[in-house]
Amino acid sequence: MNVHEYQAKELLAKFGVNIPAGIPALTVEEAVEAAKQLPGPVYVVKAQIHAGGRGKGKFKELPADAKGGVRLAKTIGEVETHAREMLGNTLVTVQTGEAGKQVNRLYVTDGVDIAKEYYLSLVVDRGTGRVALIVSTEGGMDIEEVAHSTPEKITTIVIDPAQGFMPHHGRAVAFALKLSGFLNKQAQQLAKSLYEAFVSLDCAMLEINPLVETRDGQLLVLDAKLSFDSNALYRHPEEVVLRDETEEDPAEIEASKYDLAYIKLDGNIGCMVNGAGLAMATMDIIKLNGEFPANFLDVGGGATKEKVTAAFKIILKDPAVKGILVNIFGGIMKCDIIAEGIVAAAKEVNLSVPLVVRLEGTNVEKGKEILTHSGLPIVPANDLGDAAKKIVAEVQKVA
């Protein structure tokens, strides 16, 4: 689960992290009032969407030379102008794709006199089972280019969660940022506070970009991106209320109600599988045969008939789907349950696209029998390779 920048900063402030003064706003009037409450005389108006690259983004409804989603304002009047141009319009960034995201919230912050920008993030390193603290002296909007062109400017510090954050980790961060004196001490304390926030909140990712050094010698978190590990949200009911469903795909929201793992993709073949590894293999083999997956949908290992029916409906709601491939290996999940769900969903939504089903595992013969006697035009497949070839052929035949 992702949250907005202002929400991330409010959470980090509870751990002693130094952030600029700022107030969220849902309307132009609230943005103006927020600016009046800040010290000034310089303000920053920031679009709040769940995507990076806002500063370089462009609004669909505004001229091509219009400013992006992060703007400097030197007067209250400019704050009002920026707010009117941003709210309700669609911001397109490198992370939103061409569709962009509508801006429904703003964050008005106090201006900061920046001397230097840095980068700092924490993620779970699944390879080592530890927390990776990633640091660079090259903070700002082009950190991706830094990682690609000059990876030597990025330092990774690995922390064993069993040991926790130690003083030498803080010193390593300050050294990597090439800070000395009071700034060095601030960096050590900041790294410790961010690690404590990361672990306490069960974060999947915490990114500070940029972390800035001000001209009066302070380290400030100028922008923050925070996402929670969805599997741990049950431990954080007070954070769950921060979820902004307007930032999420409606199909993904619907899928979450049934505990389904669903991600919308750009292809035309819907995929329903059980298990993330099987999902990846299924998507790969579809592409290998000349088409592209329309989604990643994992029904999990213990799905019910109702869950499978819901999954099928979610796939079919996507108008881009021209065919569906069901690839199920029945272990805990029984093939006859999958078959019943497929038949029920297909009849309920009046299936109008080709459907290829590959079943294997527990109760597979019973499952195949249910499909055969369903009266539906279901194409059976013997294995994954056979299934991929058949669904691609069916989709291309329709096209």
Give me a quick take on this structure:
This protein has 399 residues and is of the alpha+beta class. The protein has helices spanning 5-13, 28-37, 76-86, 143-149, 167-176, 181-200, 237-240, 250-257, 276-288, 305-316, 335-348, 364-372, 384-398, and strands at residues 22-25, 43-47, 58-59, 70-73, 90-92, 101-102, 106-110, 114-125, 130-136, 154-159, 203-214, 219-221, 224-228, 261-264, 269-273, 295-298, 323-330, 355-361, 378-380. The chain has 13 helices and 19 strands.
Question: Roughly how many Å is the radius of gyration?
Answer: 25 Å
| Number of contiguous helices | 13
Report the sheet-strand fraction. 25-35%
State the distance separating the first and last CA atoms. Answer: 37 Å
The pLDDT mean sits at 91
Largest sheet, in brief, is: 6 strands, antiparallel
| CATH homology-level superfamily of the largest domain | Succinyl-CoA synthetase domains
The CATH topology of the largest domain is what?
Rossmann fold
* Number of self-contained structural domains: 3
**Could you name the CATH class of the largest domain?**
Alpha Beta
> What structural class do you assign from the helix and strand content?
alpha+beta
The low-confidence runs, each spanning 5 or more residues with pLDDT under 50, are none
Helix content: 25-40%
